[in-house]
Predict the structure.
Amino acid sequence: MTVRTRFAPSPTGFMHLGGLRTALYAYCFARQNNGTFILRIEDTDLERYVPGATEVIYDTLRGCGMTWDEGPDVGGDYGPYIQSERKDLYLPYARQLVEKGAAYYCFCTKEELEERRAAAEARGEVFKYDKHCLSLSKEEVQAKLDAGVPYVIRLNAPTEGESTYTDLVFGEMTFPNDSLDDMVLIKQDGMPTYNFANVIDDHLMGITHVMRGLEYLSSTPKYNLLYEAFGWEIPQYIHLPPVMRDEHRKLSKRDGDAFYSDFIDKGYLTEAIVNYLALVGWNPGTEQELFTMDELIKAFDVRRINKSPGIFDINKLTWFNAEYIRKMSPEAYLEKVTPWFDRVLAGKGINYPRLAQLMQDRTEIFSRVPEMVAFLGQLPDYDVELYTHKKMKTDAAVSKENLEMILPVLEGIEGWSETAIHDTVMAAIAAAGKKNGAVLWPLRIAISGQANTPGGAIEIAWLLGKEETLRRVKDGLARLS
Ligand code: GLU
């Protein structure tokens, strides 16, 4: 048997992290079995149509290194792969089920259903469609159809007994049949519901393994009734627990932590997101945490998917991100960091390649870069308390004295290079019989206005250029007087 998996997102305009993880697992599973990974766009809910949303799906998956073998834009033998383009094929299948007695036409209006729902709720019951239209005779049904009365087609679910199936993650699942409702298969507008289309399409596309969110676990017995009514083989099911913020809270659009794009905007690397996401809900059974896509494909094991919700810990993601940033080539880092430098340093004449060298190991998330380098563009206002440093043996008075000593030394440097600055400053410190820290610390504070900087006084002085360095040292002296 050739494994065929699919990722079947609805085009909502955003890629939820949970969805992305489903795609990743389905992709890894297909690849490790030399199978086929299929992309199907589930857009039968026309009210929810968002322009450009399919492109978001394509770009995200490709950007994450997942390519599909069959799908809307690449074709394949089982197309079309966009459900709205398949809309005419579902109704005949629903009619077949009606013929077999596994489904039936329902002409109840919205108002009638609402009334019965309200009555059921008033009795303290959960409303479930009451099979009202199942009792219509063939002739009555035909007469209504001929008269053009709007209808839906519903599943005729059994009300007694139990349904059982095996999920590869959750094991044997048994549901009492009276918990199954006569779900709608074809809506009034002629479109299939997800509940119907997923079965038809998974069958027609030869899907062997269905991976999807846990919310479908309890509907699956109803899908199995459809497979059985058609006499089709039921696929293997792999339901995945949700990706959550913590035990109680979901990731949410409002908190800006639900979508892949939220994290890209915050300056996380795709590779870090994908790597971490793989481990949210699955573990390799070893200590290994860093995985390339190829390594993931090899290591992934459906049997090691957790049953409990995956907790998406942003601090852990940040750790992965920093690891990936450290592993980037200097060129790749420079390219990635440049727009973040530009936010605060555009037009300031700062040497980006050198700054990038100083920043790469200190970068955890790109969105934090601007605040870390902004001082190069503009000296921040700062507290003179910063000059006091116990270990460096400085306070305001010592700092003033040492800045006064070093200012003319800096003024005298010809050819502003890091080596020249370094050698000249160090020689002057030695000649004055001072401790390095007692001069370099105040110098760093004066030219950066902060205690934590990428690089030390020498590197910063070089990045700022001679003129700006002198200006800032004088500014520091003024603050200290
Ligand atoms: N279109 C469904 C969703 O986005 C997919 C469920 C499935 O994979 O079958 O939730």
In short: Residues 17-32 form the longest helix (16 residues). The chain has a mean pLDDT of 96. Residues 86-240 form a domain with the Rossmann fold fold (CATH 3.40.50.620). The chain has four domains: 4-81+243-311, 86-240, 328-377, 384-480.
